[in-house]
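Re: [help] complex structure
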Amino acid sequence: MKTMRDAGLLFRRSLTELLLRNPVSLAVALSTPVLYLALFTPLLNHLPGAPGLPRGSTLGLFLPGILSLLAFTTGIARGFITVFELRAGVIERFRVTPASRLAILAGPILAAMAIMFAADAVLVAVGTAFGFRPHWTGLLVLAVLLALLMAIMAAFSIAIALATKDIISFAAIVNGANLPVLLLAGVLLPISLGPLWLRVLAHFNPLYYLVEASRALAAGTFGGPAMWQAFAVLAPLCAITLGWATRVFRHAVA
Amino acid sequence: MDNVITTAGLRKSFPARGGRVEAVRGVSIDVGRGEIFGFLGPNGAGKTTTLRMLTTLLPIGAGTATVAGQDVARQPGQVRSRIGYVSQLGGADELATGRENLVLQGRLYGAALPEARRRAGELAALLDLSEFAGRRVRTYSGGQRRRLDVALGIVHRPEVLFLDEPSTGLDPQNRASLWEHVRSLREHGTTVFLTTHYLEEADALCDRLVIIDHGQIVAGGTPRDLKKQVAGDAVVLVLRDGDQAADRGAELLRGQPYVRELTAAGGQVRLYVDDGGAALPHLLRVLDGARVAIRSVQLSEPTLDDVFLRKTGRRLRDTGEVPEGRAA
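Output below.
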């Protein structure tokens, strides 16, 4: 109860901060996915049906990947704000109150998630206008998976921010993790195009499961192995990273 | 006396290159209810580390601490609801207004919205912030900012308020106004525990204080008692010919029966005598007789810096200043 109440208060605070702090970054957050769609889809127009690729429309292949990408980047970027708040003494001010430690972590994550879903909605709306025909129930299930991955990456990112405490070390770790995770997930092109070793390696990447499930779910393959595998990987991983980050909050030498 | 803070053998060390650094090495203190208690020491002395252990922000290394009747290591949650803490950084949300900050803080301490709103208005009035309460914190001056930080620290009427270097970055006028506010908290029964590296602040504001250096307490008492330990007056003789003359002057004066303690550095001889006015002519005569030329003479009653010098062999003023602008 108390955790919910505290998380609600801190969610409102974070959301206000995100909306007020930088209207420019909010505009960018909402428009970037559409830019991806506009600038990258034309390159793919002849790909569906090519050897190794699933059949279906370009948008059906690519748009779910952007949704997954967005969950990943929104989550992993969350720690930048944590470093800033750490330096400004905000985190310490909260840590000395009796507010639930999980709530101090969850409030900001949920706020970033709300903005992510707004961007997702814009993307799906624009996609639909250009011929994207998703399976709507599948899309709702996908939303749960997107939330799980976003929370995993955000908890990870915040914990790294609390541990490193400075923007340079934090950025080095996060940027270092970015590229391999993105390349090994098949966000832009399905990993099935790659050789065996690449496909094996991808199975160690949580984002890979989300991307696979997102394509299946958007196409209406409901309850298939891709979806179950994604839940089986992401749900426990989410619990583990949240637990870990809460622990860091409890002990952080900030 | 009714103690609000009691620590016994408090210790903390951090891993560092080539072993561990012991930041706090056996700190034992008792702070009575309604006192303004000070922790005076140079940067890196272990003041903030001790404070962070007492406020549950840092796990206790060894030893015990009781704050507001609760064991800090076992009941951190109970301690948190009974204490207020204002860090060096403050940590108010810059884009929110002062009032919004106060209301959220009140709610995080469990108040319902109407109560939190009422309390925010009350605090704004108490700390002379009413005029700016509706403005964004970003527009506040250093002094207004600091008063808001204090208001955030006492939103839940804590038994103890911890202030970490409260007047760093404040000009003298704002510092004086902050001191007035801290004193009025004491009048309302709040115990105040503060760290400072400003001698004037410790002297003017604290009922009692301890001097801490290298993680250990080197002296403690009321400012008056501490200064009395350095019996007599301090005399500083600035010599014309620099260090060599200072060494020679020190040699000459050390043998005089009325000179209590003496140090020579930077072309100055600093010494303590029972009665400065009476000793001065003698001192001058000795130096003049040996042809040691004097540039100027200062005679002063002992300060806490003299206490620090006597206990540690160093001067607090020489131990380095806090970088500017940290709490602007």
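The radius of gyration of chain B is 23 Å.
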